[in-house]
Amino acid sequence: MFLISTTFLIVIGSLSTFVNCWYSSPWDVAGCGRVLRPNVNSAVNESDADAAHHPWMALLTQEGGEHCHGILLPSSRVNTSSVVVVSASCQRKTSTDKQRVVTGIGPDGRLDGNHTKTASVVGVLSGSGHCFDDVAFVLFSPEVHFNEHVKPVCLPRQSTPPPNSPCLLAGYSIERAEDGSHGISKVQLKETALMVRRQNRGTFMGSYFFYVHNITSKTDVTHFKGTPLVCLHNGLWTLYGTIIPLESLENEFVFADVYSRLQLLEGEMELPKGPFLTFLSNLGLWD
């Protein structure tokens, strides 16, 4: 007869708890999601933001002065990336050959600053195009290397942020050139702080989204289509959604579920696996 000891049961129970917690934690790769900033303890209306607190923010510029808020993702390559998330409907305003991805915008807001990099768009992965599927993964070249001014946000392992999470919406206020070209002279990063107490999920034509109760004021900057929702989860700032302004109400914001999009596109992008999944892959226990 095989006897199961109490110690064995405790070990198995602890391992089960660890695995469950591990699965819900963000992908901790490439130094993602780490910044030193004051704690976010309450909802705060839109205000100027410190660029150092959002090193993952990017800007998709388009001919004619159009722009989209973007956010830099980690990749399977060490310390580099070549993909940002933006609003699909925003990105479709012009052809990809007229678009550029700008990363590393500093506190002066200049698009030609010391740490700013501009890259060409070489491909786009997007969904069906309806408002609840307004997420596009923009591929650019050359790839950008990470440093203290350019870091990726972490990727989620679940569809919504944990209850009582401090979250931020960040986007760029645009200052136009005075030469009549309608180009961008410089930008100012803005942020709105949210405390995500609870979330309700929904689906439309196979696309998942979630609702977040809100007490802050809506603006044209941090609530612009595709503005990323980044939440602090286990000490890592993690991307959970992008805002859908047309479906959002004054006291309730609606976000496209980024996690479900990542699941669908996993085979088409070089997404990181994380150290534990890499270990399992090397053993042939995980594809």
From TrEMBL:
Residues 43-287 form the Peptidase S1 domain. GO terms for cellular component: extracellular region. One of its GO terms (biological process) is proteolysis. InterPro entries: Peptidase_S1_PA, Peptidase_S1_PA_chymotrypsin, Trypsin_dom. The keyword Transport does not apply. The keyword Acyltransferase does not apply. It is found in: Secreted. This is Peptidase S1 domain-containing protein.
